[in-house]
Every structure is written in C-alpha cells, then in structure tokens.
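Hi R.,

Here's the chain you asked about this morning:
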Amino acid sequence: MKKSHHMILTLTLVGVLSSLALAGIYKYTQPMIRENQRRALEEAIFQVLPGTKTFKVIKKDKMIIYQGFDSSGKPVGYAFVGEGPGYQGIIKVMIGVSPDLKKMFAIEILESVETPGLGQKITTPSFRNQFHSLDIYPSVELVKKKPTRSNQIQAITGATISSRAIVDIVNTTVGKVRKVLGK
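And here is the predicted structure, written out as tokens:
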C-alpha cells in the first residue's frame, strides 16, 4: 500500500512539474512566435505586390486588407490573406491583386499541411507562377489541361483537390474583398 502511494505521489509531481515547464516555455516563446509570424506576413505582402515600398492596413467588415504603395505614393494594389480547407487541413494564402481587383500579381502560401510530395506542390514556383498576371474577373478557373484563357490555371496532376482549394480560396476571398471595397 505504501509503495502505491509513493508511485502516485511521484507521478503527480512529475506531471505538475512537466505542466509548469511547458507553460513556462509557451509563455517565453509566444512573443517570438508572434514576431516571426508578423515578419512572414509583411514579407509576403511585399512578395505579392511587386514594386510596393510601403503599405497601409485597412480593417473593414472583419477583414484586413493591405494597400500597397510605390515610392511615389501611388497605389500598387491590394494584398490580403485567404484561407480555406485543403485536402489535409486549412491552407492560408497571401493574395496580391491590382488596384481595380481584376488582375492578380501573385500568391504566396503562408500555411499548408497538404500531402508531402503531391499536395505540397502548391507551394512550388511552377504552380504559384501560374497566378502571375492572371485575370481574376469574374473569377479564376481550374482546368486539367493547358489553359486556353487568361483566367485559367492548370491543376497539379495527382493533387487536384489541393489545386481546387487554392482556386476556391482565391475566388472566395477576392469576392469578399470586392464587396468590402465596393469594387
């Protein structure tokens, strides 16, 4: 009986100490994690809005939109984060568009847990480059063969769900931004 009490007390003590250590590490690392996320977000804004030197944040209707400006103060376009379900989990994408919201400059994948090998091909330059100078009005279309129109991108063979997810995220988020900005 005495031995079982000793084991229970030891396990309880180890559990409490482990919990306190985890809580302390979490509290210590949280500011660094937030700062790294902020830097990654800012870097993504400059990547999807070529020529942008500064940006301002527009918060409207629960959306955060970044308006980019060149060195002379002229608007370059808008950047915003879209997210939606992929094959394995949530995908977050930074989207850069022209000031009239009719042409896309680029996308940058911020978060993705898609299948290694196939689904992760959405992060490769060959897939992302399809979005450069893409017409997004009225919407982006996904095709399985070589695109024939200026608003189409080609799906990744074997990763159609992930490709479709990116197109859906882009179309949905651009639609929301158009409503928010009244364009």
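One quick note: The chain has a mean pLDDT of 93.

Cheers,
M.
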